[in-house]
C-alpha cells in the first residue's frame, strides 16, 4: 500500500512538472508567434493576426488547465483517500483559473465589439455567471469539510502532544505510534499507565483521567477494608 502511494505521488510530481513545462513552452511559442512578420495585419478593426494567434494559444492553455485540474484531483484523491473532498476542491479551483485565463484572453476581441453596441458590461457578466457554479461548489465543499479538517488538525495536535520516539531499527525520530513511518518497524509501546489509550497523550503518574480528552485511564482503587470493631 505504501509502495502504491509512493508511485502515485511520483506520478503526481511528474504531471505537475509536465504541466509547468507545457505552460512555459506555450508562453514562449506565443511570444515568438506574435512577433513574426505580417502578424500585425488587421483582420477586423483593431484585431490583428497576432491577437488571433495569441487567443488560440490561450484556448489551448484553458483546455490544458481544465484537463490538468481534473487529472490532478483524481490522483490526489488516490494518494489521500481519507479526504475525497480534495477532488472537487482542486477541480473547481482549476475551473476558476481557466475562466480567469479565458476572460483575459478574449477581452480584446469581445469588448470592442460590445462597446459598439453599448453593452460592454455584458462581457464581465457572462464570465461572472460562468464562475458562479464552481465558486458555489468550492464554497460548499470547504464549508461541509471544515469540521473534518479541524478534527484532523486536533488529532494531529493530540498525537504530537504525546512526544516522539526513536525507531530502534533505523534511528528515525517519529511521533509515538505503533509503527515507524520511515521503515515500518514496530515501535516499542508505552505502558497503559504512561499514555492515554484514546489520544496517546502522556499521563502523569497516578492520573485517573487524561487531561486532554477526559478518558478514564485507570480503575479507581478499592477502599481499604476495615474490621467492624468486634473482636472475638
Characterize the structure shown.
There is one protein chain. The protein has 232 residues and is mostly helical. The chain has two domains: 2-161, no CATH class; 166-218, no CATH class. It contains four helices and four strands. The chain has helices at residues 2-33, 49-79, 86-116, 122-161; strands at 42-44, 47-48, 164-166, 173-175. A hairpin with a 2-residue loop joins β1 and β2 (47-48). 8% of the residues are buried. It holds the Pfam family DZR. Keywords: Membrane, Transmembrane, Transmembrane helix.
Terminal Cα span: 72 Å
Count every beta strand, where a strand is a DSSP E run of 2 or more residues.
4
Q: Helix share of residues?
A: 55-70%
Q: Using the CA coordinates, give the radius of gyration.
A: 30 Å
Question: Topology as H/E string?
Answer: HEEHHHEE
Transmembrane segments: 12-36, 48-68, 89-106, 118-136
Pfam family, one: DZR
Keywords: Membrane, Transmembrane, Transmembrane helix
Protein name: DZANK-type domain-containing protein
Amino acid at each position: 500500500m505504501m509502495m502504491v502511494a509512493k508511485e502515485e505521488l511520483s506520478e503526481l510530481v511528474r504531471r505537475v512538472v509536465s504541466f509547468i513545462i507545457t505552460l512555459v513552452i506555450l508562453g514562449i511559442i506565443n511570444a515568438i508567434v506574435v512577433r513574426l512578420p505580417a502578424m500585425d495585419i488587421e483582420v477586423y478593426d483593431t484585431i490583428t493576426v497576432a491577437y488571433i494567434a495569441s487567443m488560440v494559444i490561450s484556448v489551448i492553455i484553458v483546455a490544458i488547465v481544465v484537463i490538468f485540474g481534473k487529472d490532478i484531483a483524481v490522483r490526489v484523491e488516490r494518494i489521500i483517500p481519507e479526504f475525497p473532498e480534495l477532488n472537487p476542491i482542486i477541480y473547481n479551483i482549476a475551473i476558476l483559473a481557466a475562466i480567469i485565463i479565458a476572460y483575459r484572453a478574449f477581452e480584446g476581441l469581445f469588448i470592442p465589439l460590445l462597446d459598439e453596441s453599448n453593452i460592454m458590461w455584458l462581457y464581465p457578466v457572462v464570465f461572472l455567471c460562468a464562475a458562479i457554479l464552481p465558486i458555489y461548489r468550492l464554497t460548499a465543499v470547504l464549508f461541509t469539510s471544515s469540521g473534518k479538517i479541524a478534527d484532523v488538525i486536533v488529532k494531529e495536535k493530540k498525537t504530537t502532544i504525546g512526544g516522539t520516539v526513536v525507531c530502534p531499527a533505523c534511528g528515525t525520530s517519529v511521533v509515538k505510534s505503533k509503527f515507524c513511518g520511515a521503515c515500518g518497524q514496530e515501535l516499542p509501546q508505552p505502558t497503559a499507565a504512561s499514555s492515554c489509550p484514546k489520544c496517546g497523550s502522556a499521563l502523569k503518574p497516578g492520573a485517573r483521567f487524561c487531561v486532554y480528552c477526559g478518558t478514564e485511564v485507570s480503575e479507581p482503587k478499592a477502599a481499604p477494608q476495615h474490621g467492624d470493631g468486634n473482636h472475638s
